[in-house]
Specification:
TIM Barrel
């Protein structure tokens, strides 16, 4: 690619409530090539877009998404650090609005200490069904830190691209390390040109998170990441314009 994709982390995270329709609109208005979002199940089994373990940003500290039915979640508002408010969207709302407009990096939230394997499987099946329902499989990549969840994603619904999120590098030569994966997404502090090259040799794309500063953006560019996840897509677009030439080579 001439330059890495810019992927809006939860849409945008500076000034707009993250993981909301307003955040996704802001990302696309400011040069993002795609949006990253997080999906969890409500108590009544509806996939909703929300990142955190608790609803503290909706003034319900200690309560979790799966404690409330969709009807109750609809009555909540989430707040950004700047005080702006928005509602919690469902996955259906996001896919219907953005599935034909942009790339969607969809993180399936799986927390073994909180959710049961049955809940994980239910979430996987409903995410896959939604992707198939809106016919957006070509634009969607499913992400997770949980390898078992990604394996489940490969077994249900249409063929889907899957990406393993990594806080630290893994041994790419280990048996099964890259099986059935489209990409790896590594924390930027561990990203190196050598590791990106190794990922490419293994036949995978290499993404990175989260790049919101010149230091992290410079590291991602130098390493040759294929996609950069950032909460500041407008800023990153300007940074890339200033530091990459027409061939995508750092100046």
């Amino acid at each position: 690619m001439a330059r890495p994709w810019i992927i809006g982390h939860r849409g945008v995270t500076d000034g707009t409530p993250e993981n909301t329709l307003a955040a996704f609109e802001a990302a696309l208005e400011h040069a993002a090539d795609g949006i990253e979002l997080d999906v969890q199940l409500s108590r009544d089994g509806v996939p909703v877009v929300f990142h955190h373990r608790t609803l503290f940003r909706a003034c319900l500290r200690g309560r979790r998404i799966f404690h409330l039915d969709l009807a109750a979640l609809r009555r909540l508002v989430v707040r950004s650090r700047s005080g702006r408010c928005a509602s919690i969207p469902t996955l259906d709302e996001v896919l219907s609005r953005y599935g034909s407009r942009t790339r969607i990096f969809l993180e399936v939230k799986a927390r073994p200490r909180v959710d049961t394997p049955a809940r994980h499987q239910e979430l996987v099946e409903k995410v896959a069904a939604a992707v198939e329902r809106y016919r957006v499989a070509e634009r969607v990549c499913l992400l997770s830190f949980n390898r078992a969840v990604l394996a489940s994603c490969c077994r249900v619904g249409p063929p889907l691209r899957t990406c393993l999120n990594l806080k630290r590098p893994i041994d790419l030569a280990a048996p099964g390390a890259v099986d059935r994966l489209f990409a790896l997404c590594l924390a930027v502090r561990h990203l190196t040109p050598a590791y990106v090259e190794a990922v490419h040799r293994a036949g995978l794309a290499c993404f990175t998170f989260t790049c919101d500063s010149p230091r992290t953006a410079k590291r991602a560019i130098a390493a040759g990441a294929d996609a950069i996840i950032t909460g500041r897509p407008a800023w990153l677009a300007s940074y890339l314009d200033a530091h990459l030439d027409a061939r995508g080579v750092a100046g």
